[in-house]
Design brief:
alpha/beta; 536 residues; Rossmann fold; 24% strand; 16 helices; globular; seven-stranded mixed β-sheet; GMP Synthetase, Chain A, domain 3; 33% helix
Length: 536
């Protein structure tokens, strides 16, 4: 693993609580984050709310280094919770709201979560009812706090009541070491077991600062954030951006393209960093409506395949906006920052971006660094790199002897300091910016009584970049299986709906190597040809 001392001059050594308190003192009535309903978040109000929440958590028995999880959408309460955890030196654990029983049980157990914040209702889903089912399996979970609703269940607490009853003048702050773990985020692993990614205050802020510096974000900028704040992109560039920069953020609770168009125009949003489908729909809608969104000046696009034609279409349709591809991960956020100059359109469209403030190398299977233009595994080092995984064995396997993180992606470097991704070494499907573990989906399918073998691969998806295709070999005597008959089983399994296969291919046998390993490269090629009608 890399040594932190070589990057110490890049760190602020400040926490979001430090920055929030300073902003609240300096400009309490200024908007920090815009909300669609017009109830915008000001620095003074959100620091008061975060301080009250910190007092309440202390009174509930939470102590420094305890883990506090939240499964909230892009709501103001997530911002207050981030400040509260920073004030108390608690470790915060964002969980994607679409996760259900299977994923949630693993994460809350693995993190040893002491307190959990959930919505009362979001997208018609009853979160308290889910937690009731899971709670017997979660011995560490002491408190469940419900946001919204008239009254929480008897064994849960009301967020609103906690905040109202707390006296912020009684808050006692201790020293918080900005090099210690601030946040734990779970990302899909190739083995099917999610990995706990650990970031400190300093590493997360460095990732945020890299983008702010490269894109020259300042007091006139508003960052539209439709990505969930439970992703590292949304957490850093949504929740924390207004406190560590002069730019503001603008939350969207859920993406709806016509509402996004109106919202951008209403508040004058200037920037966005999000997944490919959002940009695709925005450009299409703007073209259909004959609008050019003149305030929008940049759109950083990543998390799924970005067609070069989309970048060029953006420049034709949105008169002042430069779109570009970026590359990164939860472990190594924002390794590249794109190309913004008009004369760099080809690089913006055809590469995965210019790397900025990262040491990026490409290595062969023996660990030797390769020259420009040669494909190999991308490995990175930098001040924004994670501390490691929660599992020390996973950390050991992820890093080279000289401290580079092995991304699992295949690509090459160009003379323009650009990165080009050409393939994926790790067994991950990127669906609409969401990393899905093929192995996790296969484990669920293998438990089906009619399935003898299962291989899950990515397939092309017009809107989401990649979809989920399951290749199946059925047991002898099985009557047959299709998507409709599989859905009740998938629902009962507790697997989140976005991980369900969208296509089944039943075959007599799966292609394999001599050692018996499934040739997923062949399966991906076959389904790509079937979906697109093109061979490669």
């Amino acid at each position: 693993m890399q040594t932190r001392t070589e990057y110490k001059n890049q760190y602020r050594n400040l926490t979001v609580a430090d920055m929030a308190l300073a902003k609240a003192q300096e400009k309490p009535d200024d908007v920090a984050i815009f909300l669609e309903d017009g109830q915008h978040i000001t620095f003074g109000d959100i620091v008061d709310e975060g301080s009250r929440l910190a007092v309440a958590l202390t009174e509930l028995g939470l102590r420094a280094r305890d883990v506090v999880s939240f499964q909230l959408p892009n709501w103001r309460e997530a911002v207050a919770l981030d400040i509260a955890c920073s004030l108390l030196d608690l470790v915060i654990n964002p969980i994607i709201p679409i996760y259900r029983d299977r994923e949630l049980t693993f994460i809350l157990k693995d993190a040893a979560t002491k307190a959990l914040f959930i919505p009362h209702l979001f997208r018609k889903f009853d979160y308290p009812e889910m937690i009731r089912r899971l709670r017997p399996e979660l011995p560490d979970l002491g408190q469940v706090i419900v946001v919204g609703g008239d009254k929480p269940p008897a064994d849960m607490l009301s967020y609103g009541q906690l905040v109202r009853d707390a006296d912020p003048s009684t808050l006692k702050r201790g020293r918080v070491d900005p090099d210690r773990t601030k946040i734990v985020m779970y990302t899909s692993g190739t083995t099917g077991r999610a990995k706990a990614v650990l970031h400190s205050h300093n590493t997360l802020t460095r990732a945020l600062d890299n983008g702010c510096e490269a894109w020259e974000l300042g007091k006139d900028d508003i960052m539209l954030m439709p990505s969930p704040v439970t992703h590292i992109t949304g957490f850093a560039n949504g929740i924390e951006l207004p406190f560590f920069s002069e730019a503001k953020a603008a939350f969207m609770e859920r993406w709806e393209v016509s509402q996004a168009m109106d919202y951008i125009s209403r508040i004058g949003a200037t920037a966005c960093i999000s997944a490919t489908p959002f940009l695709q729909e925005l450009v299409q809608c703007a073209g259909d409506r004959g609008e050019s969104l003149p305030t929008l000046r940049l759109f950083a696009c990543g998390g799924a395949s970005v067609p070069p034609s989309l970048i060029r279409a953006t420049h034709r349709t949105l008169e002042n906006c430069r779109a570009f591809r970026v590359y990164g991960s939860t472990e190594a956020p924002l390794v590249t920052v794109g190309f913004q100059k008009p004369e760099e359109e080809a690089l913006a469209a055809e590469t995965d971006g210019r790397f900025y403030n990262w040491d990026v190398q490409v290595q062969d299977d023996e660990g030797n660094f390769l020259p420009l233009g040669r494909d190999g595994e991308i490995v990175v080092r930098g001040g924004a790199l994670m501390l490691g995984y929660g599992d020390s064995e996973q950390t050991r396997e992820a890093f080279t002897a000289n401290g580079y993180f092995q991304t699992g992606d295949i690509g090459h470097l160009t003379p323009e300091d650009a990165l080009v991704i050409t393939d994926r070494k790790k067994d991950i499907i990127i669906r609409g910016g969401e990393n899905l573990s093929a192995r996790e989906i296969e484990d669920v399918l293998y438990a089906h009584p009619d399935i003898q073998e299962a291989a899950v691969v990515a397939m092309p998806h017009e809107r989401l970049g990649e979809g989920v295709c399951a290749w199946l070999v059925l047991r002898s005597g099985a009557a047959g299986l299709d998507l409709a008959s599989l859905k009740p089983y998938l629902s009962e399994s507790g697997l989140a709906r976005q991980k369900w296969p969208e296509r089944l291919e039943v075959t007599d046998e799966l292609p394999k190597t001599a050692s018996g390993k499934v040739r997923k490269d062949q399966l991906r090629k076959r389904i790509r040809e079937q979906v697109t009608g093109q061979s490669s």
